[in-house]
């Protein structure tokens, strides 16, 4: 660290701490920090290796969730988490850690592309301009980032490795026996040497190239499939389940989403479902986030059961195999692939009219119903509506335990995304099945004896009887009887019976579906995949990466009317024939290929960015193993490794966080990283909220121009309605950090955002309250600098005991609060100390002034750096040791003990905080005031709560 001593020039108002002085101090020290590399964190090796003494310290890797560079820039709600991690990082650095803290930009995705479509500006141009604007705003806040490590996901040298990771996943399969991912090459070798049977029973050597590709596609962790997807015509793209809101609309844009069958890329995240649940236990995450992930993954135990239908079998998953004797019909999801195979030409004789939907043939009924179901979201289909819809397929399956023929329906309350897309319906003991059975006049058979007195005759039942604590009845057949057994025993018995006959087995099912990984957009990472003349997919070799996005004139995906469920996607890249059709040598001579024209979703780049921060300039490897081990490897308390602190919003629980965990586990299995989890500790910051105002038309008006009069709110003389919620440009209530910095300075903004309340709680913004933290900094300045002369006013000598106690209590409390992310209470303690020093009305001793500056440095680094240098130091305050409290001054010298006789206070004793109960009792009973109160009465009992209370019972 070079020596720097640059006192500020005289401000406009003498030497008072004003906004103008703050602006000068802040800009000047930011320049010094950049020039001197103050925040650069050394690696143990590589091009970012630095001072070995610093590397030898305990490390701390602190991260914020990736920001997206919006054209609107930042409002004061955005930096809340960034300031918090910066304060924590600064405190950790001053506490002896080698701290890695930096920030990049998640820059692919829909907003830039939509802007490009509207304006004709290339997404890269607008995105890079937005990044530069955001960098200026963030720099003004004094964030201590290692800028050497920053990048954007749109940088080709970055997304080269995103594509490389995709290929690692594509060229891997999940070995359920080993419970880990392995290279596909090992699977091929097993097929070739016969140690693993080829699906279908043929020899590997007898399969064509296309057949081999199809077999491997069934194993690959990244695979293409023709399956039902979430199609959003209004956006012109398909969406992952996690990108569809609870009311069946797109998370971005709020467009309707429909089910459509398309060929798309998927990630087999379901292979990791068990590990994704189990490994949550070792993570230091909020329990609410863990619960969301567990519920989203949705592990449930039950059995798979085969119902014969001609030469086919309909496989169902059920958590209640004990109720098999009560299955009186079956229901398939409308999208189930078996539906098209077995629909007969005509209705069977005796088919109920209510089953046909009024159609002349099963084919017509099924086709019409499938079209109707495709227009509904999954949420709408699962809504608890009493009116159940469906149609008979015209076929019957066989109940495997009773031998009864049961009709097979399709109905929209069954989803392909859960279980097998087929259910055995037990209407007596499932509410939805009961409603469906009543609507379609289907039999209801009781197999779990009701405990509510209704009896087993279901004719008069008004609803299903659902219980896990009852006996089985009416459940006996060939070779099996469950009658009289409890649910647990019956489940075990029927599962064993099914397994022994090869028509079922115990299994675990998950709600989690494979991750849909294709987007029909331009602004995303191209897939490093090409197709040969036979349509077989081939991965590009690493030497051909990155596969860069081509320049195109038209960025627009083809969008449709939002409710056009029958529409099909068309990608912007597919229109660039010169890029799509290529001649390549992939190792067997030059051949013609066609590139994949979908792009990766915006989540791809954020699945692994923590690794690139570690080794950002590495052109030959994803990350140096030694560097990754140093910053993220497993350690005491973090058995799966990961980032030490990750701060961001709770809204990413089942999107980014789940996806990043999956990618980390694959990379770990393949030996590329030592950390099986990306983020060990997660903290969800709250939201800064603000009042918004709407006029009589419901249109938002500028909040800054609203006047409050007589308990009402007015805009341009007209009454408006006030509402409390998010801050944003669209609500016309956004306050920019630039405005606050202009009026008060960045240090004031930092203090105010940290002082507003607990970090994990949402809090309202109030510009009028900012001045409180501004005055704190002005008092701090006056305690060290003479406002008339600009001279430092500290004196030599030892502080008195009262000052030392106030100082060390603040150091002890504020330090612990900063380490625990309790910044609001840390500021309260510092404010209390500063006020006490101000009220003393005398110059501060140098030792007090210096420790006061060090105490405030993580929170308000600019003024701290300035005061540190004015106090005569030539090195940066950033790398000083955080002050350590003297325990002798932290504990009060005496505390007041209240002595009660018959519940009334009769004495107050000043005693040592460490006094024993015996000594305290002796002092209390011999105190003159207590003796007088006792009046010679006999003491029955003395209750002592040292050191603050003695209660004497007479």
Could you explain how this protein is built, in words?
By secondary structure, this protein is an alpha+beta fold. Among the domains are: 1-36 and 737-887, Isoleucyl-tRNA Synthetase, Domain 1 (Orthogonal Bundle), CATH 1.10.730.10; 299-510, Isoleucyl-tRNA Synthetase, domain 2 (Alpha-Beta Complex), CATH 3.90.740; 691-734, no CATH class; 892-953, Ubiquitin-like (UB roll). The protein is built from 30 helices and 34 strands. Residues 1-12 have low confidence and may be disordered. Strands 2-1-22-23 form a four-stranded parallel β-sheet, sandwiched between helices. The protein has a four-stranded antiparallel β-sheet with strand order 6-5-7-17.
List keywords for this structure.
954 residues; alpha+beta; Isoleucyl-tRNA Synthetase, Domain 1; Isoleucyl-tRNA Synthetase, domain 2; 4-stranded parallel beta sheet; 4-stranded antiparallel beta sheet; 32% helix; 18% strand; globular
CATH superfamily of the domain at 299-510: Valyl/Leucyl/Isoleucyl-tRNA synthetase, editing domain
> Main β-sheet, in a few words?
4 strands, parallel
Low-confidence stretches: 1-12
Strand residue percentage = 15-25%
């Amino acid at each position: 660290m070079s020596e720097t001593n640059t006192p500020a020039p005289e401000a406009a108002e003498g030497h008072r701490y004003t906004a103008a002085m703050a602006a000068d101090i802040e800009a000047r020290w930011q320049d010094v920090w950049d020039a001197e590399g103050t925040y650069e964190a050394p690696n143990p090796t590589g091009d970012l290796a630095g001072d070995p003494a610093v590397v030898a310290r305990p490390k701390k890797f602190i991260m914020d969730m990736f920001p997206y560079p919006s054209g609107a820039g930042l409002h004061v709600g955005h930096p809340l988490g960034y300031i918090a991690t910066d304060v924590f990082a600064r405190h950790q650095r001053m506490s002896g850690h080698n701290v890695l803290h930096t920030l990049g930009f998640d820059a692919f995705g829909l907003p830039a592309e939509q802007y490009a479509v509207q304006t004709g500006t290339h997404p890269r141009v607008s995105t890079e301009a937005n990044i530069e604007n955001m960098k200026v705003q963030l720099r003004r806040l004094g964030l201590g980032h290692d800028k050497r490590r920053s990048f954007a996901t749109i940088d080709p040298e970055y997304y080269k490795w995103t594509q490389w990771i995709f290929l690692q996943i594509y060229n891997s399969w999940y070995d359920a026996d080993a419970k880990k991912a392995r290279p596909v090459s090992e699977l091929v070798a097993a097929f070739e040497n016969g140690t693993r049977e080829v699906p279908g029973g043929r020899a590997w050597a007898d399969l064509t190239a296309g057949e081999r590709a199809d077999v491997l596609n069934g194993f690959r962790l990244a695979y293409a499939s023709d399956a039902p997807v979430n199609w959003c015509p209004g956006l012109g793209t398909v969406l992952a389940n996690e990108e569809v809101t609870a009311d069946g609309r797109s998370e971005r844009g709020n467009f309707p989403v429909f089910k459509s069958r398309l060929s798309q890329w998927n990630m087999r995240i379901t292979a990791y479902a068990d590990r994704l649940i189990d490994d949550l236990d070792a993570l230091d995450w909020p329990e609410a986030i863990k619960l969301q992930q567990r519920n989203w993954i949705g592990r449930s135990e039950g059995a798979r059961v085969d119902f014969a239908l001609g030469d086919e079998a309909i496989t169902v998953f059920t958590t209640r195999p004990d109720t098999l004797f009560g299955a009186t019909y079956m229901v398939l999801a409308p999208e189930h692939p078996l539906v098209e195979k077995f629909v007969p030409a005509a209705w069977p004789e005796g088919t109920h009219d209510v089953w046909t939907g009024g159609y002349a043939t099963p084919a017509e009924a099924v086709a019409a119903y499938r079209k109707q179901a495709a227009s509904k979201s999954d949420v709408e289909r699962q809504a608890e509506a009493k009116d159940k819809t469906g149609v008979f397929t015209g076929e019957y399956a066989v109940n495997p335990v009773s031998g009864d023929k049961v009709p097979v329906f399709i109905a929209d309350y069954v989803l392909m995304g859960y279980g097998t897309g087929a259910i055995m319906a037990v209407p007596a003991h499932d509410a939805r099945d009961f409603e469906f059975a009543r609507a379609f006049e289907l039999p209801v058979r009781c197999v779990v004896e009701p405990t509510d007195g209704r009896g087993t005759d279901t004719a008069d039942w008004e609803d299903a009887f659902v219980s896990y604590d009852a006996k089985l009845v009416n459940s006996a057949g060939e070779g099996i009887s469950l009658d009289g057994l409890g649910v647990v025993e019956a489940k075990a018995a029927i599962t064993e019976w099914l397994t022994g006959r090869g028509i079922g087995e115990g299994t675990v099912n998950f709600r989690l579906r494979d991750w849909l990984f294709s987007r029909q957009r331009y602004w995303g990472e191209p897939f490093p995949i090409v197709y040969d003349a036979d349509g077989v997919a081939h991965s590009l070799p690493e030497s051909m990466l990155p596969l860069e996005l081509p320049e195109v004139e038209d960025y627009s995906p083809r969008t449709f009317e939002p409710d056009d469920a029958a529409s099909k996607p068309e990608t912007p890249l597919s229109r660039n024939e010169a890029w799509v059709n290529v001649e390549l040598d992939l190792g067997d001579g030059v051949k013609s290929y066609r590139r994949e024209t979908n792009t990766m979703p915006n989540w791809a780049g954020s699945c692994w960015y923590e690794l690139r921060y570690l080794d950002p300039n590495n052109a030959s490897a994803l990350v140096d193993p030694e560097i990754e081990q140093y910053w993220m490897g497993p350690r005491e308390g973090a058995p799966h490794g990961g980032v030490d602190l990750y701060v961001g919003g709770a809204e990413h629980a089942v999107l980014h966080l789940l996806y990043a965990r999956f990618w980390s586990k694959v990379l770990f299995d393949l030996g590329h990283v030592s950390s099986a989890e990306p983020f060990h500790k997660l903290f969800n910051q709250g939201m800064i909220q603000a009042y918004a105002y709407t006029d009589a038309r419901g249109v938002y008006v500028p909040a800054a121009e609203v006047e409050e009069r007589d308990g009402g709110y007015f805009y341009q003389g007209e009454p408006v309605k006030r509402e409390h919620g998010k801050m944003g440009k669209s609500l016309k209530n956004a306050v920019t950090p630039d405005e606050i910095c202009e009026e008060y300075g960045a240090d004031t903004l930092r203090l105010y955002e940290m002082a507003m309340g607990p970090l994990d709680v949402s809090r309202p913004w109030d510009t009028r309250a900012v001045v409180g933290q501004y005055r704190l900094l002005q008092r701090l300045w006056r305690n060290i600098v003479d406002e008339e002369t600009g001279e430092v006013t500290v004196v030599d000598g030892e502080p008195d005991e009262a000052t030392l106690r106030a100082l060390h209590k603040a150091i002890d409390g504020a330090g612990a609060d900063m380490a625990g992310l309790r910044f609001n209470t840390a500021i309260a303690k510092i404010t209390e100390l500063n006020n006490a020093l101000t009220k003393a009305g005398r110059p501060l001793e140098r030792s007090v002034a210096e420790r006061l500056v060090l105490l405030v440095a993580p929170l308000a680094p600019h003024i701290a750096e300035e005061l540190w240098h004015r106090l005569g130091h030539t090195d940066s305050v950033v790398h000083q040791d955080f002050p350590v409290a003297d325990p002798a001054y932290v504990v009060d010298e005496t505390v007041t003990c209240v002595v009660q006789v018959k519940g009334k206070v009769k004495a107050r004793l000043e005693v040592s905080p460490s006094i024993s109960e015996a000594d305290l009792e002796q002092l209390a009973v011999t105190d003159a005031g207590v003796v007088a109160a006792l009046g010679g009465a006999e003491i029955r009992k003395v209750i002592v709560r040292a050191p603050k209370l003695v209660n004497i019972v007479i």
